[in-house]
Amino acid sequence: MSMFLRPPHCEWLALQGDRATGVEVRGPNGEVAKTQAYKEVIVGSGVYESSKRVMLSGIGPENALAQFGMKAISSSLHVGQNLPDHPILPHVFRLKHGLGLGDHLLRAGPQKAGAVSAYNRSDLLDLVGYSRIDERLARIKEYVKAKQDNGGKDLFGPAGQPRRMFFDAFQWHNPVPQKEAGSLL
Prior knowledge:
alpha+beta; 24% helix
């Protein structure tokens, strides 16, 4: 599904049997909209909210759902488990003066006003990209061997679900690299 929504948020997954076919979202005024996926549904609501949305939709460990009076539509023992096991590799780059959006966004003036105006008119500026890396992983012999040792199941999806993605988003709290002598910066 290629959809960028601002400010609605996902309430639950629309399911047909045990297959996600879309999402149900709630808008800022409480209105509910249902969307239909063309190909697949990728839940990208963060470490905790993704599991929460999936479990609220009836997908997860049966015993955990039963504690809240919910019936499991699809039993999946790994939903909501091992949440701290999400390695993050920040990518922070120092740019030459005049490159990037720092001056546009951090300093008052017509450039910032223009950027804020464009942001307010567009739903495309709340974007984080995901790249599938299946083919790259298949070329790493250590990964291939470990996957074979794991019964052919993906190491990043303990039940065999293939959901390997590279996530690269700017994070303000990461330190900026120091300029080194002789660098191109």
